[in-house]
Design brief:
The chain has helices at residues 56-64, 86-96, 112-122, 127-140, 156-168, 186-200, and strands spanning 12-23, 30-41, 45-49, 71-76, 79-80, 97-100, 174-178, 206-210, 222-227, 230-236. With 241 residues, the chain is an alpha/beta fold. It has one domain (12-236): P-loop containing nucleotide triphosphate hydrolases (Rossmann fold, 3-Layer(aba) Sandwich), CATH 3.40.50. It has a six-stranded mixed beta sheet with strand order 6-7-8-3-9-10, with helices on both faces. Strands 2-1-4-5 form a four-stranded antiparallel beta sheet, with helices on one face. Helix 3 crosses helix 4 and helix 3 runs parallel beside helix 5. The relative contact order is 0.19.
């Protein structure tokens, strides 16, 4: 079988080599990641699947810089972010990364639109422009009638869509989602994945999705399966229409 040339193969947006992650010390130490090799290409959606407790959330937290690896290296768009000085590391992630947390992590005192606008405000955009841009994205996600609602007045699925808008609003190069359709009905889950797919179809962007939702598998360009702290297999697939 011939190997595609570098001219036609998308570049790696995410490249993990030998990632290990331990929690605890001494006899209480638990190794959650046991030498993970993982890659996600630019211009694509890559799914990460596996049973609960296998290390998926830990892996994407390491990729996003929320956790430091115990060993191994992570490159994002060719840059080993851990080699950057701390201040530059923060700026790199702020500019290039959007993360959808499984628990949403919305600010309780801010409205849906204000929560979604946070990355733009952090980047220095004026508040009216930032909120207007966030509102436009929330409308696309079916939340046009909830723009001024506080998180406490939103359902779990609505909060999840606000969290997704917050991850996408600043048009990051890498979007990482932890179970983005878990709290959504099928139709809403499809619309969310269509929005993520639209974000991924760009030669300098990529989307990594942790999911158990087999209903949305058709959106994945590649699927990696994980078990017991390791990638057990990965495969590319032809997208259905």
């Amino acid at each position: 079988m011939s190997t595609p040339s570098s001219a036609t193969t998308p570049a790696a947006a995410v490249l993990c080599r030998g990632i290990e992650k331990d929690f605890g010390d001494g006899e209480a130490r638990v190794r959650v990641l046991r030498g993970v090799d993982f890659a996600a290409r630019a211009g694509e959606i890559t799914f990460l699947m596996g049973p609960s407790g296998c290390g998926k959330t830990t892996l994407i937290s390491v990729i996003a810089g929320l956790l430091d690896p115990s060993a191994g290296a992570v490159e994002l768009f060719g840059q080993d972010v851990n080699l950057l000085p701390p201040s530059e590391r923060v700026l790199f992630r702020r500019r290039n990364l959007g993360f959808v947390f499984q628990q949403y992590n919305l600010l309780t005192s801010l409205t849906a639109a204000e929560n979604a606008a946070v990355p733009l405000l952090a980047a220095g955009m004026k508040r009216p422009e930032a909120v207007d841009r966030a509102k436009a994205l929330l409308v696309k996600l079916g939340l046009g009638n909830r723009l001024d609602s506080l998180p406490s007045k939103l359902s779990g699925g609505q909060q999840q869509r606000v969290a997704l808008a917050r991850a996408l609003v600043h048009e990051p190069r890498l979007v990482i989602c932890d179970e983005p359709t878990a709290a959504l009905d099928h139709a809403t889950g499809e619309s969310v994945m269509e929005l993520l797919a639209g974000s991924a179809i760009h030669p300098e962007r990529a989307v990594v999705v942790v999911t158990h939702d087999s209903r949305v598998l058709r959106f994945a360009h590649a699927v990696a399966h994980m078990d017991d702290g390791l990638i057990t297999d990965s495969a590319r697939q032809t997208l259905s229409t």
